[in-house]
Design brief:
Blueprint: H1 7-31, H2 35-58, H3 74-84, H4 92-97, H5 102-124, H6 132-136
Length: about 140
């Protein structure tokens, strides 16, 4: 039932996730009143920016795999479905409102990062064996 995705497509999606994360963390850093927590989120935003650069470097080492879909757009629908349940879909204002103590912010960031790792792990199963090494570099 599972089809093979091109690793390039998975990495492009990873870049978008990192961009969303960078924006999310940076906005939290700017809006939160707790200075220490703001610094943590600013650092997370910087790390997301570095991940974007790293992921883009991976694109040069890819071996294209043929895309075998049961119907046109199948992979796009699948990835979109995964993304809808993925990190950074909660609004920033809602996220800020849920942070009552600094530990709440840290736990939120940990949860988002865990969801990213799980997401990339799921996508790893959808690329050709020759591209799995590249996908392993995402997490």
């Amino acid at each position: 039932m599972w089809k093979v995705f091109k690793a390039e497509e998975v990495i492009d999606f990873a870049v978008e996730i990192e961009k969303n994360g960078q924006l999310f963390y940076q906005t939290l850093a700017e809006k939160l009143e707790n200075k220490e927590l703001s610094l943590v989120f600013a650092d997370l935003a910087d790390q997301e920016s570095k991940h974007i650069v790293d992921f883009q470097k991976l694109l040069g080492s890819l071996k294209d795999a043929p895309l075998n879909e049961s119907f046109p757009g199948e992979y796009q629908e699948y990835v979109k479905g995964l993304a809808e349940n993925h990190v950074f879909t909660k609004g920033i204002d809602e996220a800020i409102g849920s942070i009552k103590e600094p530990i709440d912010g840290i736990n939120m960031a940990i949860k988002f990062e865990q969801e990213s790792i799980l997401f990339f792990h799921e996508l790893k199963e959808l690329v050709s064996p020759g591209n799995m090494g590249v996908i392993n570099n995402l997490y």
